[in-house]
């Protein structure tokens, strides 16, 4: 039997992992990436992260205007480059709550339970704090917890503690709750993503086709046999024994829908012939959301960002209600002002305590407007549609506002809240402020949901239901979003999916 050929679509957090594991197992791998090489210096220097939004390395997606977000659209940056969104993000390493995985396992099998994914996480990481029952040091992904905090970031942590929040030295340890220094994927001031850590060292062992956007998969008699892709303005085809979609929670469902895999009536309505009915493709879209508390410093200036150092170094996990079994809020703290669209800039230096929710109840969807790559995609997070989301958000915003009042910020930096501002007092006013200024935490998931029920898009081994030769391996498979940043879980999903596929291919 000859080597199996596999096409992997997307060189992001999960796709790079899948491609590497397949190469190691002896498969013939062709990797498609819609973007280019990661030559932009801003990718490698975390202090320049803001330059990447709206750049050529960003898909630059926008949602439709959303009622829950004051009828405004929201910018959703996504990586269009080798490295994917892990080339654009803040590289924060969060494994999230053990209960997240145990919830998945109830429906999708014990392999997804926390006790079984923790050893995989340990195998993935090279933790600066040394090996322990929670951490590994032999993995390909560097996790740094030893860098020096900027003074303003230390003051933010101190202010959280002064306001009654416990300091947690390791949120990837015993528990998530508390205020913590972020653990990040950085070595010597340089961002390390899975493209660099997994794939770049073996790039001679696979074929990588950049600047090539996959339009659809080729479906013949219930089996996927290849992909159609556009490169240099030409639509071309490539065939393989197996196709893996790792194009992310916004990309993978679009490819399925353009392939005629999805809700039949919706596809027909936009001129696509339905070939395989799967009603939930593109549904169950959800995301973590943020809204800023921005304070100016009146007695001393915050130094400018340093090369190779992120403007975010601390965050916090908290429960908005005592009866919750895990945190539902995760504010993230920045040494610079993070203005929402339409905000007037502050003249002096300022910092941002970005209040945030990580257990959204609202669900949205992705739909197409036509069959072509140039046809507009409609992305609707349906943000803040469920009233429970706003309740948790208001709680988080109040926590952030209280931090600004503490001595570590108010006295030591002369911190003074500018946004929302003193005139915003009641819960109703706070809710209105949040709706007007809500932004994404860059964690879209759920659009190719994993499950064992008839509505699931993929099964617990991440095979697309009812089809042979096709898997989805990325954050789109999450039935429900994790409690915290989704990059580490996406890498875990890459490792899990690769293991299933290698076993199925008999490699």
Automatic annotation (TrEMBL):
SUPFAM superfamilies: FAD-linked reductases, C-terminal domain, FAD/NAD(P)-binding domain. Its cofactor is FAD. Pfam families: GMC_oxred_C (PF05199), GMC_oxred_N (PF00732). Keywords: FAD, Flavoprotein. Residues 248-262 form the Glucose-methanol-choline oxidoreductase N-terminal domain. InterPro entries: FAD/NAD-bd_sf, GMC_OxRdtase, GMC_OxRdtase_N, GMC_OxRtase_C. Belongs to the GMC oxidoreductase family. It comes from Glutamicibacter mysorens. This is Choline dehydrogenase. It comes from the Bacteria.
